[in-house]
Amino acid sequence: MMDLTQKQWVKHSVFHPFEGFEDLRWKKGGSVLYASIVILLWFVAKILHDNLVGYQFAVTNTKMFSIVPYIVQTIAVFLVFVIGNWSICTLLDGEGTIKKIYIYSAYSMIPYVAGLYIRTLLSHVLIQDEVIFITCVTVISTAWSVLLMFNAIKAVHQYSISKTILALLLTFVAMLIILILLVLLVALFQQVYVFVSSVYTEITYRVRV
Amino acid sequence: MQKKANHLAAACLSVLTLTAAIGMPAVSAEHYNVYNYDRWDEATPSQAGYAAQRAVSGLDLGCGAFNTPSDLFRDWEDRFYIADSGNNRIVVTDSGFSKATRIYDKLKTTDGETTLKDPEGIYVSRETQCMYIADTGNSRLLVCDLDGNVQLELTRPDSTLYENETFKPQKVVVDKAGNIYMVLNNITNGSAMFNSDGEFQGYFGANSVDATAEVVANYFWNMIATDEMRANSSRNVAAGITSFDIDDEGFIYTVTQSSSSEADRVKKVNPAGYNLFSVLEATFGDLNSVYDSTANENYTTQMVDIDIDDMGRINCLDLETGRVFQYDEDGSLLFILGTTADQLGGFSMKVSAVETMGKNIYVSDAMKNTVTIFTETEFGGIVHNAVALYNAGYYAEALEPWREVLKRDGNYQMAYIGISSALYNEGNYKEAMKYAKLAQSRNLYDKAFEGYRSEWLNQNFTWIILVVVVLIAAAVFFHFRNKKKKKNQPKNLIEMLHEGEEE
């Protein structure tokens, strides 16, 4: 039973929100490659959606394009989530490895990413009065992904429902802590860099004299 | 030989003049940097819509130097009235500001004469043929005919509605029915309204208090404070109106000089006291505060006077930067003129009033003691023509003027909107979409896109139906064929084995 290829596993876990990830775990399915492709597609979808959306639905008037915010909003946030979830759930008797968390959460992002592409396409054929269709796609794809994400975390760590909720809340806190530490680290390294560079400048002055 | 040399000289000369002509700057000859706001809401160098012509002092008019002129008014015969506060008089000049035609400093009353003291406001009504002088220093408002006979004297009303101790009229307007509105010093309830007989009617057009953090905090503390504490705390009071004007339809436009409140900076008040500009998304004045590096100060717009011209355009005067901001009737920015400088077209930090006549804008400066006259440039004329046509709904007629505007200033934001609307009305949806995008107007783009889409659907309807029918047919066909195949095919051996295991 359930001898699926990696491609079929992706389909199976997306279209079986409640049992899919349990099956995936039982049969040790899921591939890092496909997970990474999903995240990359998310990154591309985000850029496309923000810059190529039909003008009648555009939110911002982008004057300059910068890729950094897009990396932060997709890839970086996802990685921080994975690391945060792993560090919390290791303490909470979770069974998931970091690789599994990565694969399962990436798979559960699929409906949302697909929704982004559909929204971008729809925005080129709809007018503002028909925005309800786009809202519909947004709500359905997001709700689907949230449901998948919940069950993915539940399955990967073998948690009960209440423990999964707790784990997700704590993951959010952990993500905040990681981000604060990152900002602190960057600031510190900047100061170290300034210190080293000024010492270097001073020395070059002395040497010249 | 001589002839050849002549030819050479002529050639050299013509080349010289040519290069001189090319080398001449194409920008206007204004002494300051003229700017406008572009589609990113950033200040961008722009063509000048107005050029400063001359600055008129009292000496030029032959009536002695002005001293702190604080109000300007133009009547229906284009005579100008200048409230020359420091000299305690009202000076009347002709429309060309060539000489003073009349000076009111003593006014006749029934029992003799009375003098003005520090008059800060003047209004002349065509309907009542009367002059209304805000005689601030004497705490009264004088109504007199044009010969200088006082008809009515308004002093502090003896009404319970009027709570203030002082009565200092600063600006005055009169509507067509003869009702008198005045801005009073230290009154925050709005403008005081009197009927034509001089009876106090109440207040009109009060400003509202912005819900700033301080106001919210005060509200919170007041909930738990005792009466005694409340009596000692400061009250949240909206800023009082600084000046106002009335248009031909009887709407009163007010300006409020306040660095904290942006919402009530410029208001158009209907007879019910409701601010019609509150629904506009427009911000009046500079969008960002201006930083002056030499004085190390930030200047935020503080409107001191407003004038509605004959075309319904709104001209507001900013005290801090000495600029006049001109808007059309819908609050779209047209031009910004003036600056703080000693040169012509520049002002001290004490501009006091703005007035208009046809193509001219007049600004009085209470420190320089002059009235500066600006005249519309050629570019300004084209823009005004285009805006007037556009606002009247003649989109097609406005198309050419708007294109001309773009030729001269590619950053002129309204031109893109005008062209897009015109093209939309023409049915040229594709181009309308392009210009709507350039104008960053989502709603225009949406309308144009809707037209474009239905046009496209109409043209390609047959093809779309054909494709849909073929697709459905193909789907049905393959569906049935697959079913047939499955029925006929023998079951997979492995599948059968699995089934056997489960049983």
TrEMBL record, chain A:
<feature type="transmembrane region" description="Helical">
    <location>
        <begin position="101"/>
        <end position="119"/>
    </location>
</feature>
<feature type="transmembrane region" description="Helical">
    <location>
        <begin position="68"/>
        <end position="89"/>
    </location>
</feature>
<feature type="transmembrane region" description="Helical">
    <location>
        <begin position="165"/>
        <end position="189"/>
    </location>
</feature>
<keyword id="KW-1133">Transmembrane helix</keyword>
<protein>
    <recommendedName>
        <fullName>Yip1 domain-containing protein</fullName>
    </recommendedName>
</protein>
<feature type="transmembrane region" description="Helical">
    <location>
        <begin position="131"/>
        <end position="153"/>
    </location>
</feature>
<feature type="domain" description="Yip1">
    <location>
        <begin position="12"/>
        <end position="181"/>
    </location>
</feature>
<dbReference type="Pfam" id="PF04893">
    <property type="entry name" value="Yip1"/>
</dbReference>
<feature type="transmembrane region" description="Helical">
    <location>
        <begin position="31"/>
        <end position="48"/>
    </location>
</feature>
<dbReference type="InterPro" id="IPR006977">
    <property type="entry name" value="Yip1_dom"/>
</dbReference>
<keyword id="KW-0812">Transmembrane</keyword>
<keyword id="KW-0472">Membrane</keyword>
<dbReference type="GO" id="GO:0016020">
    <property type="term" value="C:membrane"/>
</dbReference>
